[in-house]
Each structure stands twice: as C-alpha cells, then as structure tokens.
Amino acid sequence: MLQLQQTVLTSVAQGADHRAILDQVCRLAEQLLPNSVGSVMLLDEKDELLNVYAAPNIPPEGVARLNGLRPGPGAGSCGNVLFTAVPQFVSNTFTDPRWEDLRQIAYDFNLCSCWSIPVYSAERKIVGTFALSSFEHRSPSPFHQKLLEIGASIIGIVLARNKVEASLRLFETAIAGSEEGFMVVDTGLHILSVNMTFTRMYGYSAEEVIGQTLPMLRSDEHDETFYSGLWANVRRFGRWQGEVWKRRKNGEVFPEWLNISAVNDTEGTTTHYIATFSDISRRKSTEAQIQYLSSHDALTGLPNRMLFQDRLENAIANAARDHRRVALLDLDLDNFKLLNDSLGHSAGDTLLRAVALRLKGCIPETDSISRLGGDAFLIALTNIDSVDAINHVLIEVLAQVASPLDIDGRPLSLTCSIGVAVYPDDGDQFETLLKRADKAMYHAKEAGRNTYRFFTEQINTDSLAHLRIAHSLRAAVRAREFALHYQPQIDLRTGALVGAEALIRWHHPEEGLVPPNDFIAIAEQTGLIVEIGDWVLREACRQAVAWQRAGLPPLVVAVNISAVQFRRGDFEQSVLTALSESGLAPRFLEIELTESVLLHDMEIMLSLINRLKDLGIKLAIDDFGTGYSSLSYLKKFKVDRLKIDQSFVRDIGRDPEDRAIVSAIVQMARALNLQSLAEGVETPAQLEFLRAQGCDEAQGYLYSKPMPPEAFEVFVRAMGDEVREY
Ligand SMILES: Nc1nc2c(ncn2[C@@H]2O[C@@H]3COP(=O)(O)O[C@H]4[C@@H](O)[C@H](n5cnc6c(=O)[nH]c(N)nc65)O[C@@H]4COP(=O)(O)O[C@H]3[C@H]2O)c(=O)[nH]1
C-alpha cells in the first residue's frame, strides 16, 4: 500500500499525465487484489451520467457498455455510490438487487463482485467512483477497504490538480492570444514574461526584453516625477491605470492605456506586478479627428464659430495683459447668393473654398479665420499695436477677394464687405464685438460694397484716408502720376557737384503734391512699391542718360530702394532692365539702402548685393546711425558711401551728442575708406562743422531743394566745371 502511495506520488511529482496516473492507480490496486480489475468512473459535465475514465484492464466493449450509466438503485456498485453517496461493497453481482440493471454485463464479463467508493473533488463534492471488480464472489477485508480509500483519495488529488493545471493552461492560452499586451515584472521591475501582443506592439522579441528593466520602454514624454507618482500609487493602492507614452523598438513613440496590478503572497508582501496594456494611438487619432470635425467647418476646414470664439477670447485675455488691440473682422461676400443660385451649389462651394484659402494667405499663421456658415467669414487679428496694421490686412483682404477667380474654367470676380470692431475700443466680449462688427459690415454694404467700415467713427475716418490713398495709389501707377525730383550732392572740399538723389513725387489729381512720407509706407503695405520702385529705377536711369546726351557732365544718380522691393519681386532683374533699357553705365547708378535691409536675411542679401556691385553699381547706406549699426556688415557689403541721417545734422549747432555722433561717423568712414555724405544741410554753420570734421560730401536745402529735372539741368549748367564723378 505504501508502495502504491509512493509510486503514484512520484508520478505526480514528475508531472506525468493525469490519465496515466489514474491507470497506474488501477493497476497497482489490481496487484494488491489479484483476480480483479480497477476502474475510475466520473460524472459527466451535467452531473447526470457516469462514464469510465480509467480502466486499463476492462476490455473496450465492457467500457462501452458501462459508459452513460445513470445513477440509481439498480445501477451497480458505482451507480449506487452516486445514488446513495456512500461506499458500496457488492459481493455477488449476480444476485444483489443493486446490480439489477447491469446484470447482463456482470454475466458477460464475469464480474462476480464489485466494491466501489466515492471520489471527491477539492470542494468535497462526489465527482466519481473508484471500484475494484473481481472475477470471484468476495467481500472486502479492512485492508482492501483502506486500499480503496487511499486509491480514491489519490484519484481525487490527481483530478483536482489536473483541473487547476487545465485552467492554468487555459489562462495561458487566453493571455498569449489576448488582444491586450501582458507582462509580468518582479519588484525590481525586471521583465519576467510577455505575451505575443507585447511583441507585436513594441517590436521586441520576448528574448530581447526578458531580464531587462521596464524603463527601457519609456519615451521622453514623461519625466521622473510621473513615474515615481505612478509606482507610489501601485504600492499604496495595489494598482494604477492611465495613459502613458511609450517607445517602440523602432523609436516610434505611441500612447498606451496601461493597467498595473501588484501581486501579493499570502502574507501580503508584493512579489510581482502584472501589467496589461493596449495601443491607443488609433483611438486617439480618431478622437482627434472627431475633435477636429466638431470644431471645424466641413466645407472649408476653417475653425467653426465655437473654436473661433475660444481663440478670440484667449487673444483678448493676452491683449489685455500686453495692452494691445484685437480686431474682429466680419466679412460678407457681396452678391454671393446671386452667384450661388446661377452657378449651382457645387460651384458655390468651390468658390467658398477658394475664398477661404485666399483669406488664409492674408493673415499671419497665429491669427484665426472662421466661416460662420453661408458666405460669412470672421477674422481675428491679434497682437495689434496700431490701426495701420489692421488697415494693411483690410486692404490685402479686399484686393485678394477681388482678384479674378477661375471656378470650373469660368472666370469670376467677387468682392466683399467688411465690418471691423476693435478690442478694447468697441468692447471686451466676443458677442459685443461681433454685433458691432456686424453693424459696421452693414455700413460697408450701404457704402456701396467692396469696402470696409470700422464700428468706431474716428478709427473709420483715419483708416478710410488710408484706404483712399491705397486705392488711388493703384490708379496712380496706371495713370503715371509720379515724377522724380533731384537733389544735388556736393563735394565739400572742392564745392563740385558729385551726384543727385532721385526723390519721388506724386501729383495727385485732386490732392495736389503728396509727399513720399505719406504714401511710401502704404505702397509697401500693399506691395505696390515693387511696381513703383521699378518705375523709379527706370526713370532715374533714363534721366541720367538723357542728361548725358544733352551734354551735361556724367553724374551718379542715387535711388532709394525699399526693403519690400528687395523681398518681393525680382530686384536684380529690375536693375538690369533699367540699365539695359536706358544704356546707363552701372557706375552712374547708386542704390540707397537702410541698414535694416542689409541685416535681414544677410546671406541672401550679400550674394545679391555682390552681384550688383560686380556690375559696377554703387552702394550707399541711407539714414546711417539710426538703425542697428552692426558695423561688421560695412566691410562685408563693400559699401561706397555712408549717408549721415539729417536728424544728427539738424542739431549739430545745439547738441554736443549729435556733434560727437557726426564726427564719429565721418572718422569711421574715413578709416574704412568710405565716402561720408551729410544729409539735410541747411546752414553755413552746419557746413562749416562738417567740413572741419572732414566730411566728404553734403546734400541739403543750403544748396538746393529737390528739383524737377528741368530745374536740375539749369542748376548743373550754372555750376559749370564744378561737376565730378565721385
Ligand atoms: N528738412 C530738410 N529735408 C531735406 C533737406 N534736404 C533734403 N531733404 C529731404 O530729406 C529727404 C531725404 O531723403 P531720404 O532720407 O532718403 O527719405 C526719403 C526716402 O526714404 C523716401 N523716398 C523718397 N523717394 C523714394 C523712392 O523713390 N523710393 C523709395 N523707396 N523711397 C523714397 O521718402 C523719404 C522722404 O523723401 P522727401 O520727402 O523727398 O525728403 C527727402 C528730401 O527732400 C534739408 O535740408 N532739410
């Protein structure tokens, strides 16, 4: 008996298959009761019928006939064990009423006696029987009863263990195939096991990560405080869950939903952590998409009213802090309904999309546009420090919307009316500003459309003057209302004429002569300066050649160049065209630039200027001393002349600082081998000071105001021989 126990336990310890162990139990019992066969019967899943589970020495036909045995008073020893829940020892199966239903089987297989006792589950429930059937009539001795008891209890243990193992196997299969990632780590955060989903999600094989610690999977999205908080939670509450950004083997960072639970032993000490996790990148991008759709206009992709309002309110809060303004533009397309009805709605949609795109191009990235629905758009201009900045955008928007469109091959032109309300002048709430901008927009419509109106009358008046100039400037370019006046530049040592600065004049048909300071900035804002500047260059070159042809000594003509001319348009080509059209030798053309132009995009400027200088063109720095004065550029750019700004010259007589500045510029120019020219010289005293400092040249009312070409010609001829090329 002891040997039976030992043999079976060894098999259990070695992890042998449970059926093989049950067979072994039967065989060992048979050895201890010669002339008998052992069998194990188990209840089916419904707990109704008994089936043979192990019976190594009962022939298959016998097993087949015993299977499906329904417990009952005549259902043999095993059927009665289940029926009565107590052991059954039948010494004569041929006569005993408990074998009533199985009598034929008893005869056919010569099973003369049969002893059967219950097999219990771990929960003390009868799950089957263990029986010894003999080929002779006999009753069990106490030893045999013990044998049956021990056999049944071993069978119970083996079956229970098998159940646990089976459920473990099931669990493992479930984890391996789970859509969720699964990982077990020890308390030192070493990875002990991972499932297939982990491998798929992270791109690491199990071998690559087992034994490594968890931080290898971290991204840089969270700092140490985040992770220490997370683990503090797990230690305190036994679990943590939340969103964490992790890094795959290929370096990609992705969001996962992570669940960590502590596993404790029976004493409550944590031995392991189990992490389950899923990749939520797709969910997040769907969420982002939903968020996008709910905050944007489907047709144009522009923010909808809700998002726009949010942004405007933010902008107002920032502007309040920085003492700046925010403008709300309420824009309505003129006659859109008419176009939409006549073109069809699909063309109408294309039109709205095209307008949205153009509007986007008129404002900085940081500002917002929204479509309110229909043909109404809102624009928020943030960070505004002057009404001029709003004017600039308004003029640009009117021009952009009005420039011809091609819709499905059809040329179309469209205009819009804009109402403007300004924070803080017109209110500090979105709704108030919107109402006021809307009201102003109706005034723009009433004023004949294709224009804008501010809600506040004063801003309106100033701004409309601006708009008027912008409008008439466009016409002025076409109507050739510009002229150039020339101001002589004189050599201070010899008194000879060395050059002329060309200065633009605008002869407005109604307003008379408009000075450049009143329109150059607007021309720059509208981009018209490119066209105007082209004209100035061509005209100055043409005039210089005309004078030479008329017998005047050759003079260098200086032309002012705006920064916008450099950045927009092809400046180099303009110069080449002006020179070749006129036939002027490049050394008679000087371009005047301010310091800030040179310092912006320095590398690009340098190569452009060098190409022009290689042609022989001269370069003067205008308003010297008022800008950045980063002196290193003077050498880099091969400058010929420094023009001392008239603001320093004006007060030479009164202000010792100005005197010091002028004298320093003159000395520096000399040291660098550059010419110095003082602007705005009005008095002999100023002239004396400049001469004493060694300033090379001067220009100013003392000699002459800028003159029309004919007057300039008379001036030059009057100077006789005193003209030289500098
Ligand atoms: N008080 C006083 N002023 C004197 C005296 N001598 C000359 N001026 C004025 O000083 C300005 C000198 O031109 P700027 O500094 O280049 O300043 C110019 C220049 O920056 C710009 N400008 C003029 N013509 C053009 C042009 O064709 N293109 C560009 N981009 N800008 C131009 O407009 C500015 C103003 O031009 P203007 O009104 O013609 O004013 C000219 C000239 O008439 C003087 O003794 N006393």
From TrEMBL:
Limits of the GGDEF domain: 324-457
Catalytic activity: 3',3'-c-di-GMP + H2O = 5'-phosphoguanylyl(3'->5')guanosine + H(+)
Xref: SMART domains: EAL (SM00052), GAF (SM00065), GGDEF (SM00267), PAC (SM00086), PAS (SM00091)
Domain called EAL: residue spans: 466-720
Record-linked SUPFAM superfamilies: EAL domain-like, GAF domain-like, Nucleotide cyclase, PYP-like sensor domain (PAS domain)
InterPro entries listed in its UniProt record: Biofilm_reg_signaling (IPR052155), Diguanyl_cyclase/Pdiesterase (IPR012226), EAL_dom (IPR001633), EAL_sf (IPR035919), GAF (IPR003018), GAF-like_dom_sf (IPR029016), GGDEF_dom (IPR000160), Nucleotide_cyclase (IPR029787)
UniProt superkingdom: Bacteria
Domain PAC intervals: 240-292
Entry EC number(s): 3.1.4.52
Entry keyword set: c-di-GMP
A GO biological process held by the record: cellular response to nitric oxide
Top EC category: hydrolase
Cofactor(s) required for function per UniProt: Mg(2+)
GO molecular function: cyclic-guanylate-specific phosphodiesterase activity
Span of domain PAS: 167-214
PANTHER family reported in the protein's UniProt record: BIOFILM ARCHITECTURE MAINTENANCE PROTEIN MBAA, DIGUANYLATE CYCLASE DGCP
Protein name: cyclic-guanylate-specific phosphodiesterase
